[in-house]
């Protein structure tokens, strides 16, 4: 399979369409957010599709009610609005209620990180990983490409629990070609094995990590790359065993750092399993991004571009 | 719906007696659990009684997941301590648990949670119940099931924006298997609603959002019971709202006139006199 650029949501929605035709218990809700691939779904399954309007709180509440009556529900919206406007609905009606009820609601948020780069900080999603991670019972899924995104359709039906699935908003090339090489439930995959240093990333930053590793390889430095696509729940023991082979870890995320996101997740595991491991966290500092420009430009301003990371890795290995 | 006059009269008498008993039990619980919101629990008593003793809601305390049950969401969870004795009386749990409300190890908290048999969803944080009920109503319609969804909400809860998101959706989708009952006790925590943001004319607001509206004196058992009975069978393609005009702290004269009744307690020493004063 050669590299093809596709939007995660499009591949996911096409698979949902085929599942909805064979499975009457799937219900799709949107808060007035679309995709060309959603058009066929809302035309052909209009009895199990509802646009609740620009009303994310009601999106989550209605999804909860449908799920309590046995439907597997998809609640689709722009990531920051879905997670942050409706946070208390997610907390009370999904996280808290699923402690005592079976609830399969899948929050599908499009626009992870800086996907909506020029739309500015209201549309950036730099908090979602840390604030969803803190909620009991809610799975946190952050795929890096459309091959994985598609796999999470079957996963979403099989695992009866609330989930937040964060998709990048831009079409991206596939990273994975043969996903059967690993168990999806492990939650991560070591895309390349390295020497002393390993880059641990999620979502879009895994693409950056692979490019950084390639640049370093040309300079004779072999960096490992570990892609985390399920932050919770994942196989933490296996993950720790993989990281134990490295002396240095660099975490990469399009999110705030030092606030409970991917960096904290990795640090927590290392603290428990390998005290003394050296970790460097890369992401956004304690400030919103008001600068206007494309993703590459914004990454450069915030030292998240390939060259900055390459320089940092070389500094660490000095 | 044709009423048998004689049967209705005896039903109403029975329901009135139950309501008096529920108020007494509610005050007893408040006597041992001072954290409970007694004033807002006293206003919806006739509503609870009509629904559960009047044969309006189908339920099975021994089979909480029974598909044939009507769903009841107590969105104003904080103001539903009066529902505890009813649940115990109907066999959802043993009555001795009523002596342990808010005590260590009890499942009956000051604000009810869905670990209590008979409570379907998370309540107490306001503005959630109606949206969840809309999802349930849609689900039952898609499954061609005849059960109804009842929601009890306080009028102060109408200040939550999420409520209006759900009101719009229910009207537009014609959810006629949904019955919303507003405990219109006209008071919030700090003041009467008219002094905060006046909710009137409340019925008109629902009408423009395509709801079938009925208004009753929520302490008149006959009016409340008959309106709920009629709503249960009404199929006009519209969701239904019963605006039950009530008095916060009903039955306890000192609470009835106090704009701060929400946060007022009746001290344990004054409970017996309050029970004595009930009519």
Let me know the largest β-sheet of chain B: 5 strands, parallel
CATH architecture name of chain B:
3-Layer(aba) Sandwich
Determine the N-to-C terminus distance of chain A: 38 Å
Q: What is the CATH class designation of the largest domain in chain A?
A: Alpha Beta
Total number of β-strand segments of chain A? 14
Q: Determine the oligomeric state from the structure.
A: heterodimer
Order of helices and strands of chain B: HHHEHHEHEHEHEHH
**Given the helix and strand composition of chain B, which structural class is it?**
alpha/beta
Q: Biggest interface between protein chains, with counts per chain?
A: A-B, 29 and 28 residues
* CA radius of gyration of chain A: 19 Å
* Number of strand segments of chain B: 5
CATH topology grouping of the largest domain in chain A: Rossmann fold
Question: Low-confidence segments of chain A, ≥5 residues, pLDDT <50?
Answer: none
- How far apart the termini of chain B lie comes to 31 Å
**Structural class per helix/strand content of chain A?**
alpha/beta
| Percent of residues in beta strands of chain B | 5-15%
Q: What does this molecule look like?
A:
The complex is a heterodimer of chains A (318) and B (279). Chain A is α/β, with parallel strands linked by helices and 318 residues long. Chain A folds into 2 domains: 5-173, Thiamin diphosphate (ThDP)-binding fold, Pyr/PP domains (Rossmann fold); 182-317, 3-Layer(aba) Sandwich (Rossmann fold), CATH 3.40.50. Chain A is built from 12 helices and 14 strands. Chain A has helices at 8-22, 36-44, 56-68, 79-85, 87-96, 128-133, 146-158, 205-218, 236-243, 262-273, 295-301, 306-317, and strands at residues 5-6, 26-30, 49-51, 72-78, 105-110, 139-141, 163-167, 172-173, 188-192, 197-201, 223-228, 230-232, 248-256, 278-284. The radius of gyration of chain A is 19 Å and the shape is globular. The model of chain A has no long low-confidence stretch (mean pLDDT 96). Helices cover 38% and strands 10% of the residues of chain B. Chain B has a 5-stranded parallel β-sheet, with helices on both faces. In chain B, α1 crosses α3 (45-53) and α1 (5-32) runs antiparallel to α10. The mean pLDDT of chain B is 95. At the A-B interface, α3 and α5 of A face α5 and α6 of B.
């Amino acid at each position: 399979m050669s590299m093809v650029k596709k939007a995660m949501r499009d591949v996911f929605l096409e698979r949902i369409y085929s599942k909805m035709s064979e499975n009457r218990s799937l219900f799709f809700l949107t808060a007035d957010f679309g995709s060309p691939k959603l058009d066929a779904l809302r035309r052909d399954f209009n009895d199990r599709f509802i646009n609740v309007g620009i009303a994310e709180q009601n999106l989550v509440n209605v999804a909860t009610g449908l799920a309590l009556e046995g439907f597997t529900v998809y609640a689709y919206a722009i990531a920051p609005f879905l997670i942050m406007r409706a946070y208390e609905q997610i907390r009370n009606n999904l996280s808290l209620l699923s402690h005592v009820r079976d609830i399969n609601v899948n929050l599908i948020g499009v626009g992870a990180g800086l996907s909506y780069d020029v739309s500015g900080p209201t549309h950036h999603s730099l908090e979602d990983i840390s604030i969803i991670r803190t909620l009991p019972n809610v799975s946190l899924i952050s795929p890096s490409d459309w091959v994985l995104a598609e796999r999470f359709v079957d996963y979403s039906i099989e695992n009866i629990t609330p989930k937040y699935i964060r998709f990048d908003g831009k079409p991206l090339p596939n990273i994975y070609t043969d996903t059967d090489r690993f168990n999806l439930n492990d939650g991560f995959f070591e895309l390349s094995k390295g020497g002393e240093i390993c880059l641990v990333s999620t979502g879009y930053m895994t693409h950056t990590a692979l490019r950084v590793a390639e640049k370093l390889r040309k300079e004779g430095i072999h960096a490992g790359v570990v892609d985390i696509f399920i932050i919770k729940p994942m196989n933490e023991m296996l993950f720790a065993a993989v990281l134990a082979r490295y002396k240095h870890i660099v975490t990469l995320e399009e999110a705030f750092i030092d606030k409970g996101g991917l960096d904290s997740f990795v640090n927590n595991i290392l603290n428990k399993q390998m005290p003394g491991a050296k970790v460097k966290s890369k992401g956004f500092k304690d400030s919103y991004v008001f600068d206007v420009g494309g993703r590459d430009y914004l990454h450069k301003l915030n030292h998240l571009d390939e060259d900055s990371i390459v320089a940092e890795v070389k500094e660490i290995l000095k | 719906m044709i009423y048998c006059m004689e049967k209705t009269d005896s039903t109403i008498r029975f329901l009135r007696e139950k309501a008096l008993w529920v108020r007494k039990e509610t005050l007893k619980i408040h006597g041992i659990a001072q954290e409970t919101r007694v004033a807002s629990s006293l206003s919806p008593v006739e509503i609870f009684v009509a629904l559960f003793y009047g044969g309006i809601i189908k339920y099975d305390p021994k089979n909480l997941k029974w598909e044939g049950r009507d769903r009841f969401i107590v969105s104003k969870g904080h103001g539903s301590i009066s529902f505890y004795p009813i649940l115990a009386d109907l066999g959802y749990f043993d009555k001795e648990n009523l002596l342990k409300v808010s005590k260590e190890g009890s499942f009956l908290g000051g604000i009810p949670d869905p670990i209590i048999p008979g409570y379907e969803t998370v309540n107490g944080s306001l503005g959630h119940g109606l949206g969840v009920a809309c999802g349930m109503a849609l689900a039952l319609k898609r499954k061609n099931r005849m059960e109804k969804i009842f929601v009890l909400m306080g009028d102060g809860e109408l200040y939550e924006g999420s409520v209006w998101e759900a009101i719009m959706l229910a009207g537009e989708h014609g959810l006629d298997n949904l019955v919303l009952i507003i405990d219109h006790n006209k008071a919030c925590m700090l003041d009467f609603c008219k002094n905060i943001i006046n909710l009137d004319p409340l019925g008109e607001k629902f009408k423009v959002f395509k709801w079938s509206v009925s208004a009753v004196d929520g302490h008149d058992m006959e009016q409340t019971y008959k309106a709920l009975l009629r709503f249960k069978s009404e199929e006009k393609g519209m969701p239904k709202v019963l605006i039950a005009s009530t008095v916060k702290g009903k039955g306890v004269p000192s609470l009835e006139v106090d704009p701060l009744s929400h946060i007022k307690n009746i001290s344990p020493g004054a409970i017996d006199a309050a029970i004595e004063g009930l009519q």
